[in-house]
C-alpha cells in the first residue's frame, strides 16, 4: 500500500525563544497478557484538574496521550472518547498545545501487535479517527520511540511480542515506521498542516579497540527510525545489508525510499543510561552486564561509569542530529531518576545546551520537562509491578500532586527567568569522579573535544548548607549524604556555633553565607531531661528560636527537627501534622515549645517530626544494639507495649533534603511506614539478619525503669505526604549497608 504525502515545509524558528514543553509519562506496554498502564498508576486517568496544575507552569505545549489501547481496546466502533474529549478541550481552553501520542511503548489492542502485517493500516485508521474528532490538533507523535520499542519488544524480549531475534526487531521497527507514515497521511487528509514530532531515545556507544566494530554498528543503527522515515535507507546505506540479513526484502526497504515521511520536528529523548560502553574484559564488571554478539563476549555498561572524560551529552548528540538531518529539533524528554538537586542540574544542563546550539544557528524549538507526574517501575523497564516510584515535576506521594523544586525551575524557564537555586552551582554526579564505578578508560577518541565533562563549569565556592550537630548521629548522617549528593556543606560543632547565643549564630551566618541551615543538634536524653528541664528547654526550644530569628534576618532557609514525643499516645491511629499535641514529659514539652517559637519567628521554616532512629553509621541506636546483643547470646530487654514508627536515618536525611530543596515549610511527619512495638522491632531485625532472638525479653514499659513517662502509641503518619519507604524495606537495606 502506498503511503506518500506532501510534507509541510518548516519555517526556521531558531531565532525564536526556546519553548518549554512538558509531558506525562503515559506508557501502556504489554508483558505477556498483562498491560502496564502508567496513567492508572499515576492517577492522571481520573484527575482532570491536573491540567490546571500543568498550566500554572507556563508551558507552551504538552506531549499528551490519546492512546489506541485505551480509547479503542475493542475496536473503533466501540471506542470511548469521553476521557480524550474532556482533556483535549481543557488543554485548548488553557492555551496549551497538545502533541498527541497514539502509541507510547505499546503494541496496540489485543488483536494486533508490532509484528502484525496490518499494524500500520490499523493504527492509521485510529489516527484518522482522532484527527476527525479533534481537527484543531496540529502536532502528533503516532508512535513514540519506534527503535527503542522495537529493541525492547523484538530484540531483548522485555515487552510483547517478546521477540529475541533480529527478524522480530526489524519487523517491529519497519511496522512502526510504516505506521507513522500511514498515520500522518491519514491525519493530513483531515488537517493538511498537521506536523509530525518524531521522538527517539538517542544514545551513543563507546567501546574498547577490539569492539570498535560493534560500537560503529550500533552507532549507525541508532539512526534507523529517522533514516527510514527520511528515505535514507538505500542500497549504499550501511544498514541496508543488515536489514536484508535480518530477513527484510529489498522491495520493502524501497517502499520507504519511494514514500518518505520526514519529521517536521525531530524529538530527542536523552538519558544518561542511553550512552553505553562495551568491554571484552568481563572480569571488571558484574555478571548481569555480560553479553555478546555471537562473535565476541563483552560487558555492556553505562558509559558514564567508565569513560574517564565523561559523555558526549545532550549538546553533542543534538548537534550530531542537526548535522545529519538539518531538520528542526526538540528535546522531547529531559529527566533523570535521582535526587532532587540532580534532577534540577540535569534539566538545566539540557536547557543550556539547547540554548547554546540555538545561538549557533541550530533550529531547536523546545526542551520538554519529563515526566510531570513522575513514573513507576522504570527501574525494571516496566516489566514488573513493584511500585518503584520516581517523582518528577510533581510528587504524587502527597494527597494531591505536590510541586517540587523542578516545578519552580520550569516556571522560571517558561517566563524567561534564569533559575537561581544555589544547588545549581555544583555539577551533577555525571561530572564528578565518584561516578566511576569501574576502572576508568579513555573514550576521547570517540567523544572528541565536545565532551560535556570538559565543558562543565565548576564554581570554586558554591554556597554551603550549614549543618549544626557535628557530633550527633543525625548531623553526621547529613554530612555523609551531602557528600554523596554533591551538596556543599559545613558541619558545625557547638563551639563553632552556639545556637543559644544570638551573636554566635549571626557571626557564623554572616561568615558562611549558607543557602540553608539544618539544625540536627539537640538535647536527646529523655530521662535526664526530667532532672534538668532548664537545660533541655534552653537547647531544644530557646536555641532553635534564636536560630530561626537569625535565619529570617539573613533570608536563609531553615530545617529543624521535632519528635513523636509531642503526643500523649491516647490515639490508636497514626498521628498526622494537624493532630493536637499533648506531651507527657519534659523532652516532649521542649519540642512543642520549639515548634511554636520557630514557626512564629520564621513561618517558612521546615519543622520535621520524626521517631525512633536506627541506622548503619552509629553504634548506639536500638536496632544495632539489639542485633549486637542477640548475636552474642546476651539478654536484650525491650518494651512490648510501646508502639512506634521506627525511622531509618538515611531515608530521613534524603527525604528531608528533598523537602528543603523543594522549599517546603511548616510541620511535616517523616518516619518509615509501619507501626511496631520495640520488642517486635528487635525480633523483626533479628529474623531478617538470621540471628536467634531466644535471649530477647519483652516487658511492659512500666517495668523498664524509665524516669520520663512515654506514650503507649506514638506512630507518625502524614496528611501532607508519605515520602518514606516501608519499615520492612528499610531494615533490609540497613542490613545490606552494615554488610
List its traits.
TIM Barrel; 6-stranded parallel beta sheet; elongated; 38% helix; 739 residues
Number of helices: 25
Which second-level CATH architecture of the largest domain applies? Alpha-Beta Barrel
Mean pLDDT over all positions: 94
Structurally, the number of domains stands at: 2
Approximate strand percentage: 15-25%
Query: Could you list the spans in which at least 5 consecutive residues all have pLDDT below 50?
Result: 1-14, 445-459
Major β-sheet annotation: 8 strands, parallel, barrel
Q: What oligomeric state do the depicted chains represent?
A: single chain
Describe what you observe in this structure.
The protein folds into 2 domains: 19-455, Alpha-Beta Barrel (TIM Barrel); 465-738, Rossmann fold (3-Layer(aba) Sandwich), CATH 3.40.50.720. The chain is α/β, with parallel strands linked by helices. The model is unreliable at 1-14 and 445-459 (pLDDT under 50). It has 25 helices and 30 strands. It has an 8-stranded parallel barrel with strand order 1-4-5-6-7-9-13-14, surrounded by 7 helices.
Amino acid at each position: 500500500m502506498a503511503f506518500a504525502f506532501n510534507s509541510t515545509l518548516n519555517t526556521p524558528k531558531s531565532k525564536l525563544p526556546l519553548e518549554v514543553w512538558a509531558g506525562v509519562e503515559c506508557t501502556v506496554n504489554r508483558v505477556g497478557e498483562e498491560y502496564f498502564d502508567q496513567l492508572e498508576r499515576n492517577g492522571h486517568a481520573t484527575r482532570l484538574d491536573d491540567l490546571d496544575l500543568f498550566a500554572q507552569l507556563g508551558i507552551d505545549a504538552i506531549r499528551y496521550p490519546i492512546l489506541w489501547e485505551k480509547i479503542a481496546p475493542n475496536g473503533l466502533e466501540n471506542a470511548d472518547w469521553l476521557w480524550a474529549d474532556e482533556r483535549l478541550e481543557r488543554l485548548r481552553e488553557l492555551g496549551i498545545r497538545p502533541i498527541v501520542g497514539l502509541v507510547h511503548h505499546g503494541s496496540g489492542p489485543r488483536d494486533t501487535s508490532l509484528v502484525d502485517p496490518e499494524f500500520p493500516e490499523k493504527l492509521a485508521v485510529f489516527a484518522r479517527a482522532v484527527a476527525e474528532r479533534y481537527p484543531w490538533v496540529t502536532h502528533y507523535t503516532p508512535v513514540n520511540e519506534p527503535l527503542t520499542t522495537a529493541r525492547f519488544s523484538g530484540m531483548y524480549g522485555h515487552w510483547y511480542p517478546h521477540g529475541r531475534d533480529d527478524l522480530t526487531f526489524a519487523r517491529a521497527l519497519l511496522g512502526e515506521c510504516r505506521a507513522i507514515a500511514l498515520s500522518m497521511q491519514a491525519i493530513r487528509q483531515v488537517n493538511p498542516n498537521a506536523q509530525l514530532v518524531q521522538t527517539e531515545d538517542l544514545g551513543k556507544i563507546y567501546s574498547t579497540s577490539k569492539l570498535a566494530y560493534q560500537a560503529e554498528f550500533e552507532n549507525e543503527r541508532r539512526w534507523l527510525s529517522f533514516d527510514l522515515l527520511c528515505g535514507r535507507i538505500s542500497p549504499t546505506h550501511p544498514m541496508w545489508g543488515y536489514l536484508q540479513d535480518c530477513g527484510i526484502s529489498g522491495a520493502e526497504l524501497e517502499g520507504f525510499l519511494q514514500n518518505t515521511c520526514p519529521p517536521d520536528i525531530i524529538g530527542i529523548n536523552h538519558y544518561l543510561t542511553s550512552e553505553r560502553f562495551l568491554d571484552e574484559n568481563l572480569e571488571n564488571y558484574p555478571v548481569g552486564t555480560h553479553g555478546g554478539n555471537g562473535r565476541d563476549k563483552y560487558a555492556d555498561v553505562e558509559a558514564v561509569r567508565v569513560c574517564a572524560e565523561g559523555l558526549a551529552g545532550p549538546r553533542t548528540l543534538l548537534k550530531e542530529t542537526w548535522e545529519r538531518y538539518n531538520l528542526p529539533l526538540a528535546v522531547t524528554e529531559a529527566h533523570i531518576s535521582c535526587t532532587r538537586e540532580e534532577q534540577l542540574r540535569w534539566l538545566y544542563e539540557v536547557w543550556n545546551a539547547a540554548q547554546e546550539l540555538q545561538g549557533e544557528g541550530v533550529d531547536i524549538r523546545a526542551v520538554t520537562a519529563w515526566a510531570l507526574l513522575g513514573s513507576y517501575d522504570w527501574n525494571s523497564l516496566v516489566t514488573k509491578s513493584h511500585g518503584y516510584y520516581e517523582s518528577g515535576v510533581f510528587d504524587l506521594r502527597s494527597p494531591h500532586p505536590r510541586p517540587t523544586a523542578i516545578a519552580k525551575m520550569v516556571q522560571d524557564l517558561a517566563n524567561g527567568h534564569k533559575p537561581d537555586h544555589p544547588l545549581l552551582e555544583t555539577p551533577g554526579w555525571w561530572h564528578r569522579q565518584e561516578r566511576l564505578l569501574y576502572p576508568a578508560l579513555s573514550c576521547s577518541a570517540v567523544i572528541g573535544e565536545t565532551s560535556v565533562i570538559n565543558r562543565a563549569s565548576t564554581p570554586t565556592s558554591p554556597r554551603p548548607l550549614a549543618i549544626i550537630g557535628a557530633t550527633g548521629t543525625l548531623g553526621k548522617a547529613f554530612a555523609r549524604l551531602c557528600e554523596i549528593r554533591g551538596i556543599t556543606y559545613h558541619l558545625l560543632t557547638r563551639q563553632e556555633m552556639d545556637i543559644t547565643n544570638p551573636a554566635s549564630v549571626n557571626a557564623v551566618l554572616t561568615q558562611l553565607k549558607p543557602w540553608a541551615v539544618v539544625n540536627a543538634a539537640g538535647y536527646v536524653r529523655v530521662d535526664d531531661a526530667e532532672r534538668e528541664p532548664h537545660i533541655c528547654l534552653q537547647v531544644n526550644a530557646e536555641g532553635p528560636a534564636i536560630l530561626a530569628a537569625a535565619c529570617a534576618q539573613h533570608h536563609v532557609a531553615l530545617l529543624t527537627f521535632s519528635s513523636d514525643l509531642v503526643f500523649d499516645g491516647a490515639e490508636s491511629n497514626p498521628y498526622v501534622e494537624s493532630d493536637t499535641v499533648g506531651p507527657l514529659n519534659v523532652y516532649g514539652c521542649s519540642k512543642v515549645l520549639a515548634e511554636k517559637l520557630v514557626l512564629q519567628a520564621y513561618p517558612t521554616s521546615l519543622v520535621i517530626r520524626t521517631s525512633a532512629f536506627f541506622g548503619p553509621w552509629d553504634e548506639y541506636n536500638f536496632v544495632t544494639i539489639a542485633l549486637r546483643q542477640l548475636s552474642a547470646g546476651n539478654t536484650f530487654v525491650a518494651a512490648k507495649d510501646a508502639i512506634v514508627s521506627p525511622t531509618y536515618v538515611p531515608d530521613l536525611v534524603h527525604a528531608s533534603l528533598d523537602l528543603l530543596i523543594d522549599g517546603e515549610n511548616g510541620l511535616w511527619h517523616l518516619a518509615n511506614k509501619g507501626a511496631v512495638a520495640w520488642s517486635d522491632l528487635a525480633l523483626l531485625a533479628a529474623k531478617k539478619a538470621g540471628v536467634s532472638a531466644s535471649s530477647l525479653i519483652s516487658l511492659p514499659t512500666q517495668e523498664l525503669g524509665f524516669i520520663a513517662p512515654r506514650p503507649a502509641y506514638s506512630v507518625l503518619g502524614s496528611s501532607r505526604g508519605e515520602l518514606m519507604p516501608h519499615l520492612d524495606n528499610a531494615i533490609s537495606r540497613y542490613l545490606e549497608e552494615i554488610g
